Amino acid sequence: MNVREFGKAGMFRGRAFWAPKGGAGVEEYEDAFSVSESSAPFRTAVADGATEAAFARRWARLLADGFAERGPAVLANELPALQEKWRASVEARAETLPWYAAEKAAAGAFAALLGLEVAPDPDRAKPDRAKPGGGTWRAVSVGDANVFHLRGGAWLRAWPREKAADFGSRPALVPSRSDADVPVARRAEGRFQPGDAFVLATDAAAAWLLRCETSAPGAPPDPTRALTWDDEDAFAEAVRAARNEGALDNDDTTVAVIQA
Fold first, then answer.
1. What pLDDT is recorded for position 126?
2. Phi, psi (rounded to 5 degrees) for 221
3. What integer pLDDT is reported at residue 215 of this predicted model?
4. CATH of the domain at 162
5. Residues 175-230 pLDDT 10s
6. Low-confidence ranges of the chain (pLDDT < 50)
């Protein structure tokens, strides 16, 4: 289990939690998380490398870092540069791989990506404002990661999937090979208020957050539970309990919580 805090001195702050599959080591973790250095706009992303592909962890990292640095453009004019970087890094290791692993690497890697960009209104920080304003957010997605917009202890929106049953086994994925078709990215946008929170989660974690925490008939899901994890231990215990109960699939689990 791991946790990273960010943005303590900035307008947006938060934590990223992650854990590999149960029984797997950290070196087998194939998700990725990245956050921008800038606060205007502030960008964060999660990515999920496809396990059946070679060097999927490397590809997920390149995509997440690319969004944090460049924003939504990473899936347009910036993608060829990332694909070339992935190819070069794989070729540098090709001679050390057995033939079957080299063939798998040549087939390329795939990953889901969800990126969030939030920007305060231009006058939010002005000292003469009686009440600070909010700002705008926009998200881009390829695959089955999710973002949740939370306010006042409730969730306003889950995107692009709204129910745990919406998660399938064959999501669209971003390819590392330049000759492969790139799925059309889905996009969403909206406004946020001071005190709002956003939760980004890779597929297993997102489906878990969309499942009910109680057996009461008709009980709604509660993605706001992510706000209750104060430290690594709280997240670790929640993951262990959910996996034991069957509420959380045994998969790499990544959750980023951003507060405005």
1. 54
2. -65, 165
3. 46
4. 3.60.40.10
5. 999 999 999 999 999 999 999 999 999 999 999 999 865 444 555 677 898 999 98
6. 128-130, 214-216
Look up the domain containing 134 and give its range.
2-259
What whole-number distance in Å separates Cα of residue 67 and Cα of residue 57?
Answer: 16
The pLDDT score that the predictor gives to residue 130 is 46
pLDDT confidence of residue 123: 67
For tokens 């995509």, the residue is: 63
For residue 149, what are its two tokens?
Answer: 């917009």
Which amino acid does the sequence have at 234? A
* Residue keyed to tokens 């960008």: 43
Query: Tokens representing 47?
Result: 């990515």
135's CB contacts (< 8 A; 6+ apart) are 118, 119, 120, 121, 124, 191, 192, 260
Q: How many domains does the chain have?
A: 1
Token output for 213: 């925490």
Between the CA of residue 109 and those of 42, 51, 90, 248, what are the distances in Å?
28, 9, 10, 25
